[in-house]
Amino acid sequence: MSFGRQQVWAREHFARMQAGKAAPGKYRNAKAAGFDLEGKSIRFDSMREAKRWGELVGLQKAGLIKSLQRQVPYLFAGLTYKSNRKVKYVLDFEYYDA
After folding, report:
1. d(CA 37, CA 65)
2. DSSP-based three-state secondary structure for 29
3. 44: exposed, middle or buried (Cβ count in 10 Å: 0-12, 13-18, 19+)
4. Fewest 10 Å CB contacts: which of 32, 49, 50, 87?
5. Residue 68 contacts by C-beta under 8 Å, 6 or more apart in sequence?
């Protein structure tokens, strides 16, 4: 008998929950550690995000970009969900050309 992709995921998810383990993330990304601009340890949602952060920090130190920030929220004025919550988008990174 052949199982579809969704059925296999559901079976794995149920088995992990029964074992008391956290369910895997939506995209199955591995969390990663890195450092912020002041040298403090920070966590990233994926290895790819951590790698990109390192690249951007290098560009800022070289003077090619400025005002580097991470996890910047933007609210869309005038847009709401059906529950009247405002529509918000969180950028992974925000920076400007130097």
Report:
1. 13
2. coil
3. buried
4. 87
5. 37, 56, 57, 60, 93, 94, 95
Q: How many of the other CB atoms lie within 10 Å of CB of 56?
A: 19
Beta-bridge partner residues of 65: 97
Q: Where are the alpha helices (DSSP H) in the chain?
A: 5-18, 47-61
b vs e for 6-38, b when ≥16 Cβ sit within 10 Å of the residue's Cβ? eeeeeeeeeeeeeeeeeeeeeeeeeebebeeee
Q: How would you write the pLDDT of the chain (98 residues) with one tens digit per residue?
A: 456 666 666 777 677 777 776 666 677 777 788 877 777 888 888 888 989 999 999 999 999 999 999 999 998 888 888 888 888 999 999 999 98
Spatial separation of the C-alpha atoms in residues 42 and 92, rounded to whole Å: 13
Q: How many CB atoms lie within 10 A of CB 53?
A: 21
In angstroms, rounded to a whole number, what is the distance separating the alpha carbons of residues 76 and 58? 31
